[in-house]
Design goal:
Elements lengths: L1 E4 L2 E4 L3 H11 L5 E5 L15 E3 L8 H11 L6 H16 L10 E2 L2 E2 L12 E3 L10 H13 L2 E4 L2 E8 L2 E8 L4 E5 L2 E4 L20 H9 L3 E2 L4 E8 L3 E2 L3 H4 L3 E3 L20 H13 L8 E4 L5 H6 L2 H9 L9 E10 L2 E3 L11 E3 L4 E2 L10 H22 L9 H5 L3 E2 L4 H16 L6 H20 L2 E2 L1 H23 L21 E5 L5 E5 L1
Parallel strand pairs: 1-11, 2-3, 2-12, 3-8, 12-20, 19-21, 22-23
Antiparallel strand pairs: 4-7, 5-6, 9-10, 10-11, 13-19, 13-24, 14-15, 14-18, 16-17, 17-18, 24-25
Helix pairs in contact: 1-4, 1-10, 2-3, 3-10, 5-14, 12-13, 12-14, 13-14
Length: 526
């Protein structure tokens, strides 16, 4: 098996990973980034809509931003992490100007929009706007990787982190053909979320919760895994209808042409948070007032001059698909979009395992029970930078340690082509959508856990299989079990976690659920 050495190993290819790599390289030599696809050209960062929050106006402040995040989180976000986010958001966003990222401006000043859950206009958008405009951010950051001479390993997945005592010291990578052992002084997990664990998802292929498994398997803990955000308004297969359009007048209609959202949030209406909107749309469909699993967005209420200027990119995109937004409604459905939970970190992105750091969607605690629109990308910027600097500092203070990998390699099934395991993957995705989705219940969650146990037994009995799919299944089963156990334990509804058998929020549950690799649960007051 080939062996490599690096000071800091960054796992992932999105914005958080690249920010971590850049920050680490600014503080130490020999930094390597490893990812399934090319950094900057794969993962969720590539399909983002380029919206970011920050305290840019005179009537805004980190304190007000903090209050909005906490309220949107159903008051269970980690306050310390939220303070880090809200205090550093503005500078993190503006730092993108230095690498060539521009934002929409009006009269020479940043154009600020009011996004769902925010009390003031604080959301900027990448310029020029349009579908997938956020891809310019990872593109510019990937250019920085090359300029700085950061090592890049593409087409590989980390399948195991090896420890020496309580310190992470080595990782095993696999590309479908061979294994590589990489020794590091510190490692940053920035692999994104787990959207593709669900049948309906806005996430691209490959976003399967790998980082959650790797962190848990290495001995770190997970937090808030019951909180999975579903984007309420997804058109076609993965086009995100952003909340700005509702601020400008668009409304939601059910099959009876009723503006139903007033029954779920009579104050904010369509400006409500994503969790409430997803639950509303899901319920409308469940009760027979949906349209093919979704509802309509009507653009008729948006002033035509606004529609044809501010949303020209959207108009042109849907026109190319044969849909005229000026005079016909757009069918939208909810889909799994974002994981609020993840690896439990401290303010420096450290975990309970020495030398192991996490950031971006791979980490949990920043968003609590629900993430506000515009906070995902800024989280990757703020905490990616912190993780990289923390990992570099740790690497400066420690040496490489040797650890044996043969036992792990010998425990694996023999590699061979196979389709049974791939069918198991799709079956698990269907199960998670049905039982771990927008609306949950004790009966469904227990059924899901039974099926996960069954899948695990099947996997253990496999003597030969496609190893890439084997690792995917192994990771899926562990992460989905963590979601199901956390969801079953939380006997209330809060934010994105909705239990139809416990539809109300219980003040006694103002605490976080922490889970370890033995699936033992602990609770932390919030």
């Amino acid at each position: 098996m080939k062996t490599l050495f690096t000071n800091v190993l960054i796992v992932g290819g999105g914005i958080a990973a690249m920010k971590a790599a850049i920050a680490a390289k600014e503080n130490i030599d020999d930094v390597t980034i490893i990812s399934k696809g090319p950094p900057g050209k794969s993962g969720c960062s590539l399909i983002s809509e380029g919206i970011l929050n920050g305290t840019f106006s005179d009537d805004d402040s980190p304190g007000l931003f903090f209050d909005d995040v906490m309220r949107g989180s159903a008051n269970v976000a980690n306050e310390s992490l939220v303070k880090v986010l809200t205090r550093n958001a503005k500078d993190a966003v503006l730092s993108l100007n230095e690498v060539g990222v521009d934002f929409i401006k009006e009269d020479g000043r940043l154009s600020l929009s009011l996004s769902g859950g925010n009390s003031v206009a604080r959301t900027v958008r990448v310029s020029p706007p349009g579908p997938g405009c956020g891809k310019v951010i990872p593109a510019r950051l990937s250019e920085q990787l090359e300029k700085m001479g950061i090592g890049i390993i593409e087409g590989h997945s980390i399948v195991k982190i090896l420890n020496e005592g309580t310190r992470a010291v080595s990782a095993i990578a696999y590309d479908g053909n061979e294994f590589i052992q990489i020794y590091f002084k510190s490692i940053v997990l920035a692999t994104g979320g787990g959207g593709r664990l669900y049948r309906n998802s806005t996430n691209p292929k490959g976003i399967m919760g790998d980082g959650y498994f790797l962190g848990l398997d290495a001995g770190a803990t997970l937090v808030d895994m019951e909180y999975v955000q579903f984007f309420p308004t997804v058109a076609l297969t993965s086009y995100l209808v952003l909340p700005f359009i509702f601020t400008d007048g668009a409304i939601l209609l059910n099959s009876k042409s009723e503006r139903f959202i007033a029954n779920y949030d009579p104050v904010l209406l369509e400006r409500t948070t994503r969790d409430k909107m997803s639950q509303a749309i899901f319920t409308e469909d469940l009760e027979g007032r949906g349209i093919d699993g979704g509802v309509y967005v009507s653009y008729k209420e948006v002033p035509i001059e606004v529609l044809e200027t501010k949303y020209k990119g959207e108009l042109d995109f849907f026109s190319s698909k044969g849909i005229n937004l000026r005079n016909e409604p757009l069918l939208v459905r909810p889909a799994c979009h974002f994981f609020m939970g993840g690896i439990r970190i401290d303010d420096g992105c450290g975990t309970s395992i020495e030398g192991l750091y996490a950031c971006g969607e791979c980490a949990g605690g920043v968003h609590g029970a629900n993430r506000l629109a515009g906070n995902a990308l800024v989280e990757t910027l703020v905490f990616g930078d912190i993780a990289g600097r923390s990992a570099a500092q740790y690497a400066k203070e420690h040496d490489h340690l040797q650890v044996e990998a043969n036992d792990f390699i010998e425990s694996l099934p023999e590699p061979k082509e196979g389709k049974d395991e791939k069918e198991m993957v799709e079956g698990l995705r269907e199960l998670s959508w049905r039982y771990l989705g927008i609306i949950r219940s004790e009966e469904g969650l227990k059924k899901a856990l039974e099926e996960f146990d069954k899948a695990e037994r099947q996997l253990k009995d496999v003597e030969a299989c496609d190893l890439k799919t084997y690792f995917e299944l192994r990771n899926m089963i562990v992460v989905l079990r963590a979601i199901a156990l956390s969801s079953l334990t939380r006997t209330e509804s809060r934010g994105a976690h909705f239990r139809k058998d416990y539809p109300n929020t219980d003040p006694q549950w103002k605490k976080a659920i922490i889970i370890d690799r033995e699936f033992d649960l602990k609770f932390e007051p919030r």
